[in-house]
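Continuing the batch. This is chain 6 of the set; chains 1 through 5 are on the previous pages. Same settings as before, nothing changed between runs. Recording input and output for traceability.
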Amino acid sequence: MPPTEQATLAGRTVFRVGYGAMQLERLSGDRPAAVALLRQALELGVDHLDTAQFYGNGFVNDVIREVRTGALIATKVGADPDPGAPTPLRLAQKPEELRASVEDNLRALGVDSIPLVNLRRAERLPGVLAEGDQQVDLDDQLEVMTQLRAEGKIGAIGLSAVTPETLRRALPAGIACVQNAYSLVSRDDEEMLELCLAEGIAWVPFFPLGGAFPGLPKVTDEPPVQKAAQELGRTPAQVGLAWLLHRAPNVHLIPGTASVEHLEANLAVAEIELDDETLAELGAIPTRPMDLSLR
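Output for chain 6:
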């Protein structure tokens, strides 16, 4: 059976394939092209945008503001732009920094409330790990996040790059979604996915095709994925994304691209049906730990 096309995210029923807006920063030298691409995504049915103020040092949020979409907007806090630095962002984990980041997103997006804000904890790879005064207790962070929700500045709270233990601690605060690295070839977080499914929490995987950094396994390199793609008349990337939609009904995808062609291909994965035999062959692919400790 094909996967259901819609599911609940932050209290809204949305198309399960959204758009990860980070790739719009690749078009920072051609703003009209970035605006046109985002408008095309909305015309094709995208109603969930994933963004952050540090994407393009505010460029991406400014493009979203110009388009004035009615889509569910999800942003993230826990890091702020740091233009000119080797890595153009810096951790901002303190409660006052989280509040300031939400305010920055509100101003940049030109809205009074953001439907979903993900707290990106700096407690596990991939990404920069917190050190010194950036090691902040989860309860202190959730206190300010729930205050912002009570004030109406955010609609729902999500978590990103967290462990099952962290999610369990956070459950009383009301968690709408979890964003963690997860793909067909890197399935370390099966326990987390199952916990989210049991708790009615959306699962929004990033690095959904693996291979985000040199040396990491890529879904599209796997022979069973290539075989399924050939049989279905699809691309290996489409098969890898379709597997995620089949994996559990609470999975939402946020693939990003700066190409209209790839945008259309990404959205088409909701139509792909993977039969039991194909799912079994794909499920037999060995999972590999996403160890970025040396990167």
